[in-house]
From TrEMBL:
GO terms for cellular component: mitochondrion. SUPFAM superfamilies: PLP-dependent transferases. PANTHER family: FI04487P. Signal peptide: none annotated. InterPro entries: Aminotransferase_I/II_large, Kynurenine-oxoglutarate_AT, PyrdxlP-dep_Trfase, PyrdxlP-dep_Trfase_major, PyrdxlP-dep_Trfase_small. It comes from Pocillopora damicornis. Homodimer. Pathway: Amino-acid degradation; L-kynurenine degradation; kynurenate from L-kynurenine: step 1/2. Keywords: Acetylation, Aminotransferase, Lyase, Pyridoxal phosphate, Transferase. This is Aminotransferase class I/classII large domain-containing protein. GO terms for biological process: L-kynurenine catabolic process.
């Protein structure tokens, strides 16, 4: 093992003082940074980035208030590195129900700084330089830099949209293409259901195919399920960890931000067998060591409130689902009226809209070499005051063209925000008609 002491640092010339570490080169451009700033600068109606613009549920706010007022000094001090005891106990209880197996809160759960850090700990804790990690495109954009920092090599398998796809059921995972990506170098596959950006909910058949390949090639499955509560139209969220032979090779990733509409809390978790989770725990202990105690305590109380209500009319998750299904349908109607062809999502809170029916000449407007969806979104934000996200950001270089005729909208927005968006879209439609 090589140990680096401060004295062995290479001598720097003045030229390379500001040089990034090689592992970071190429990752400085980030779709969120550009398009969040653009939305802000142009005061656009933000139908792009995935955060709710409404208050969180009352019981979550009340829990945080109680923690703030608590006279127990311990809620303001360091807590257990792998996760605050009250929170891992609540998560253990919840996922014991969901996974239909007894989850040990101490060894089978890790609490992290959002789902982001769960993913990062999975890659850093389990992937060695040269290991391959299969990603299904489009994929949540942080997977690639995180895998690369670990020295892993992403291998891409695109979902293929049928001609004139109207639902995310029309985005298909090709069996042969998927199997061709597996080899003895494959360490892991990342799946995301319900999916960002398209909103696909993977079927039992698709999960079984992935599970069979994981077992055949002895591969870990990292299952990003941050939108687990958001499925519509009678769809069911299925957990790959519950398929035969999959618990022992799956890390399930969740997010408090998506679960309780509190993205700013940045708390997430990984759940899996202790043999895998311990590697993530080791990694996390080198990054943050432990997360903020007050928010973990409040999140635990929020789960304790919600768990007995799950699947009842009183459940926050039930209400959120029906509210979002209504907003999804409102957004689809609006987009259709202007000439977009929305792809109706089965889950999550994003919607892809096909722009090919809309005639705007971006080349005159935007001389960059960026894909058409980047140009479309810049134009839409600056000229029409509506912010969205370009989905080609969620594809490898080779497959960017697959996302470039779409733009991604987010519908977890107040009705008033959707109405402002509708007003702007209608003004635009009137101009198009002239
Ligand atoms: C698919 C997916 N995974 C992970 C994350 C990160 O979640 P968190 O905010 O909990 O870090 C997001 C956030 O948008 C996401 O869409």
């Amino acid at each position: 093992m090589t140990i680096f002491y401060p004295g062995t640092r290479r001598k720097m010339s003045s030229k390379d003082l500001y040089k990034p570490a090689n592992r970071n080169i190429g990752f400085d451009k980030n779709v969120w940074v550009e398009f969040t700033a653009l939305a802000r600068d142009y005061k656009a109606v933000n139908l792009g980035q995935g955060f709710p613009d409404m208050p969180p549920p009352h019981f979550v706010k009340e829990a945080l208030g109680r923690v703030a007022a608590s006279s127990d000094f311990a809620v303001n001090q360091y807590t257990r590195s792998q996760g605050h005891p009250r929170l891992v106990n609540a998560l253990g209880k919840l996922y014991t129900q969901l996974m239909k197996r007894a989850i040990d809160p101490l060894s089978e759960i890790l609490v992290t700084g959002g789902a982001y850090e769960s993913l990062y700990c999975s890659f850093l804790g389990l992937v060695d330089p040269g290991d391959e990690v299969i990603l299904i495109e489009p994929y949540f954009d942080c997977y690639v830099p995180q895998i690369s920092v670990a020295g892993g090599i992403p291998k891409f398998v695109p979902l293929r949209a049928k001609e004139n796809a109207t639902s995310t059921k029309d985005w298909i995972l090709d069996k042969d293409e998927l199997e061709a990506a597996f080899s003895e170098k494959t360490r892991a596959i990342v799946i995301n259901t319900p999916h960002n950006p398209i909103g696909k909910v993977f079927s039992m058949e698709e999960l079984q195919l992935i599970a069979d390949l994981c077992k055949k090639y002895n591969v870990i499955c990292i299952s990003d399920e941050v939108y687990e509560w958001l499925v519509y139209g009678g769809e069911q969220h299925l957990r790959i960890a519950t398929l035969p032979g999959m618990w022992e090779r799956t890390i399930t990733v969740g997010s408090a931000g998506k679960t309780f509409s509190i993205t700013g809390w940045k708390l997430g978790w990984s759940i899996g067998p202790k043999e895998l989770i311990k590697n993530l725990q080791t990694t996390q202990a080198q990054i943050t060591y432990n997360l903020a105690t007050p928010t973990q305590e409040a999140l635990a109380q929020a789960f304790e409130h919600e768990i007995p209500l799950i699947d009842t009319e009183k459940s926050y998750f039930t209400g959120l689902r029906s509210m979002l299904e209504r907003k999804r349908d409102v957004m689809a109607k609006l987009l259709t009226e202007v000439g977009f062809k929305p792809v109706i999502p089965q889950g999550g809170y994003f919607m892809m809209a096909d722009t090919s029916g809309i005639d705007v000449n971006f080349d005159e407007y935007d001389k960059s070499d960026d894909p058409p969806d980047y140009k479309f979104v810049r134009w839409l934000t600056k000229e029409k005051g509506i912010a969205a996200i370009p989905p080609s950001a969620f594809y490898s270089l080779e497959h960017k063209y697959m996302g470039a005729k779409y733009i991604r909208f987010c519908f977890i927005k107040e009705d008033s925000t959707l109405e402002s968006g509708a007003k702007k879209l209608k003004e635009w439609k009137a101009e198009l008609g002239k």
